[in-house]
């Protein structure tokens, strides 16, 4: 099974989507894309560890600027991390850097201590409307600190067979 935006098979982690393990963009190329077109991600210090086809692992390193009262990571920082991780998964699956967030819902499950936060993103559906989820984890904390679901609007690739 292929998705309509890239013509490629769907993510590896979801066999029901017809998995393929090769991402449409390398981790290094994605990092360059963030630096060039999305400077807020580098401003937050988000590190892209790995991109797969429909998956991504990103880290928000502990920084004093990310903290709020109670020595926990502020919610907007966690939302930014989740959004960037899902963007990496979307671009990894579709190759479409112009994809945009349509919705993002975050459930804060427990306090997030002011330490490195790991985001593990995976896509559940790939197409013009793409959906994914992210689990945020902190070493030494049992279970996720937050769970995020998000939908993305992905532009269609131009039809290469069209006359014109």
Structure description:
The chain has 164 residues and is α+β, with helices and mostly antiparallel strands. It has one domain (15-153): Roll (Thiol Ester Dehydrase, Chain A), CATH 3.10.129. 23% of the residues lie in helices and 31% in strands. The chain is built from three helices and eight strands. It has helices at 27-37, 39-44, 75-94, and strands spanning 47-52, 55-60, 67-68, 72-73, 100-108, 117-125, 129-137, 146-153. The strands form two sheets. The chain has a six-stranded antiparallel beta sheet. A two-stranded antiparallel ribbon has the order 3-4. It is globular and about 50 Å long. The two termini are 29 Å apart.
Produce a short descriptive summary.
With 164 residues, the chain is an alpha+beta fold.
Strand content: 25-35%
What are the segments in which pLDDT stays under 50 over at least 5 consecutive residues?
1-19
- Tell me the name of the CATH homologous superfamily: Hotdog Thioesterase
Round the Cα radius of gyration to an integer and report it.
16 Å
Number of strands: 8
Q: Can you name the CATH architecture?
A: Roll
CATH topology: Thiol Ester Dehydrase, Chain A
């Amino acid at each position: 099974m292929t998705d309509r935006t890239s013509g490629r098979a769907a993510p590896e982690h979801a066999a029901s989507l017809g998995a393929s393990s090769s991402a449409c963009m390398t981790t290094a190329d994605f990092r360059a894309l963030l630096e060039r077109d999305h400077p807020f991600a580098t401003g937050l210090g988000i590190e892209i560890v790995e991109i797969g086809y429909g998956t991504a692992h990103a880290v928000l390193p502990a920084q004093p600027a990310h903290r709020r009262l109670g020595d926990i990571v502020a919610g907007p920082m966690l939302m930014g991390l989740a959004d960037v991780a899902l963007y990496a998964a979307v671009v990894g699956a579709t190759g479409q850097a112009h994809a945009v967030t349509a919705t993002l819902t975050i459930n804060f499950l427990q306090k997030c201590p002011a330490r490195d936060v790991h985001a593990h993103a995976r896509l559940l559906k790939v197409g013009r409307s793409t959906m994914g989820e992210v689990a945020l984890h902190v070493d030494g904390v049992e279970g996720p600190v937050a769970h995020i679901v998000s939908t993305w609007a992905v532009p269609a690739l131009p039809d290469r067979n069209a006359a014109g």
